[in-house]
Every structure is written in structure tokens, then in C-alpha cells.
Design brief:
Length: 133
């Protein structure tokens, strides 16, 4: 009996040239890459001159007395002039807030007229203040 000897082929893939190319590409991209720095503008911010809070942000207080008289920030104001006076004061105030302070004995219809006048004058918010029982 004759035995046949098979030749086992040992094909080995040589990875050395592939690794060389990969490292060459890595070095190439590292040398040609541009690293971008964050751009910033150096500015000097102004300092505050006053430590007092601004009076412009305080709401305007309208007080409705039981007699029907209207007080705008402590000054008596007739209902007919309320639109005009309130409009001028609101445009000077950046927040445009109004607070309505009334008495239980005050007339409800008068309060509605004041609310309408505040809306026409450009009030952005209107709070109705009450006393705790």
C-alpha cells in the first residue's frame, strides 16, 4: 500500500505592510489636522453704580376708597383722568404692573371701570389686593 502524502499549504497573510500603511495614514492625518481653538471676544463689563433696586419695577397701586375716590400711588385722581395719567406712568415703568386695592364698602362698578382703564392704558398685569380676614 502506498501512502500519499498531502502537502499542507501554510498560507499566511503578512500584515506588516498593512500595519505600516495604517500608521503612515495616522501620522499624515495627525500632522495635517488643524485644531480649532474657541474664539472669544475679551470684553470689560461695566460695573453697577447703584446698589439700590430700581424704582421702575415697582407696580403702580390704585386704591379705591369707600367714597368712590381713586388714589393713584397716593395721589387723588379723578376717574376721567385715570386713563391719561395711568398711561403716562405705565410707559415710564418697565414692568407695567398695576395693583388694585379696594375696600369692602367700595362700589363694584367703580372697580370694573378702573380695571378697564388699566387695560386701555397698557397694563400687562393687574393684581387685586385683599386683606386677610
Amino acid at each position: 500500500m502506498g501512502y500519499e502524502y498531502r502537502r499542507h499549504s501554510t498560507h499566511v497573510l503578512n500584515l506588516t505592510p498593512l500595519i505600516d500603511i495604517v500608521f503612515l495614514l495616522l501620522v499624515f492625518f495627525m500632522l495635517t489636522a488643524h485644531f480649532i481653538e474657541d474664539e472669544a471676544i475679551d470684553i470689560q463689563l461695566p460695573e453697577a453704580f447703584s446698589s439700590q433696586p430700581s424704582q421702575d419695577n415697582e407696580p403702580l397701586v390704585i386704591t379705591l376708597l369707600p367714597s368712590g375716590a381713586i388714589m393713584l400711588d397716593g395721589e387723588p385722581t379723578p376717574l376721567e383722568q385715570l386713563d391719561e395719567t395711568l398711561s403716562g406712568m405705565l410707559h415710564a415703568n418697565s414692568k407695567r404692573m398695576v395693583q388694585l386695592k379696594g375696600d369692602q364698602a367700595a362700589q363694584f362698578g367703580q372697580a370694573i371701570k378702573i380695571i378697564d382703564a388699566a387695560r386701555r392704558a397698557g397694563a400687562e398685569s393687574l393684581d387685586i389686593l385683599t386683606d386677610k380676614p
